[in-house]
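Attaching the record inline, Q. Sequence:
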Amino acid sequence: MSPLEPLSAWRSRGPAITKMATPENPWMRRALALAERGRGHVEPNPLVGAVVVRDEIVVGEGWHAKFGEAHAEINALMQAGEAARGSTVYVTLEPCCHHGKTPPCTEALVRAGVARVVAALEDPFPKVAGQGAAQLRAAGIPIEFGVGAESARRQNAPYFKLLAAGRPYVHAKWAMSLDGKIATRSGDSRWISNEASRRRVHDLRGRMDAIVVGIGTALADDPLLTARPAGPRMPTRVVLDSTGRLPLASQLVRTAREIPTLIVTSHPAPKLIEAGCEVLTVPGERGGKPDVLQMLTDFGQRRWTNLLVEGGAGVLGAFFDARSVDEVHLFVAPKLIGGAGAKTPVAGLGIDVIADGTVWVTEAIENLDGDVYMRCHTKI
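Structure, as predicted:
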């Protein structure tokens, strides 16, 4: 944890999420900002930040820094020490009350003698789900919910989706020209986006549990699909390859024993298994392609929380047709490609009428050395 900062240094800061409604309460804003530091490190656990306030002064702060390690409240209380007695603790999620990889936070709060807890949201995890609040109240510590709830819900959208639907939160990413093309009519696509955009993609990859591409992209680009430099997570490379066509000489197969590689097929692929790949056989839908929802259910059983779909157009179209995309990362380069035969980002069936389209919320717009980066999510 970093040393305490004076309130004046961050009172006006919001959490590290652009274009999101931020709570007016400065202590909860700080807790949300602290929680962001765990992104990519704590999943499938939620992002959580905590601030201990006594006499309008921050005496301790903390965040859940890594899966399996101490929770935010524990870190904040350790920093506060005896000053936690009689304090108010602001935390972005209901304190846990069960023994998991770490002891219950509720017990630590009671031992520390805190006077009050303010939590943004209840934790829907079945072993918590209001029970943490009940334990605190039984010990004479009042707890209130709702301060910063909208921000906290958005911040932990992947965690909430995994719990509610049993499937990972799906990010879709593509780079395109001003006229909406991801490649020329000949199929050339290197490079539409600039170096700054590609660096951002690598940052994004490093926070994912898995990266998905179709066999067409794997054959055309022979990608490595790693984060460079490495991020907090090593994502599994997933190739949707209904007939097991991925060449044994490809970069993905040659590195499969060092970097997890999963081939999703509709048919057995023993040679890929022998080469070190994992093969998941999923019954095919139209055209023999794996059923997206069934595949995502399998991924959820693996406790994957964040999934990045990088394409191509057919794969992106399949995920959008299945209404399974939660967030879009769009990189628009100031280039014109043209051509009726040039590819567009999302194929599939699409929609028949505009009214049937998903309404997206623009969360961030950023200039990356001339490229425009947009991040949008579905309404939650």
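The first strand starts at residue 49 and ends at 54. The longest helix spans residues 26-36.

More tomorrow.
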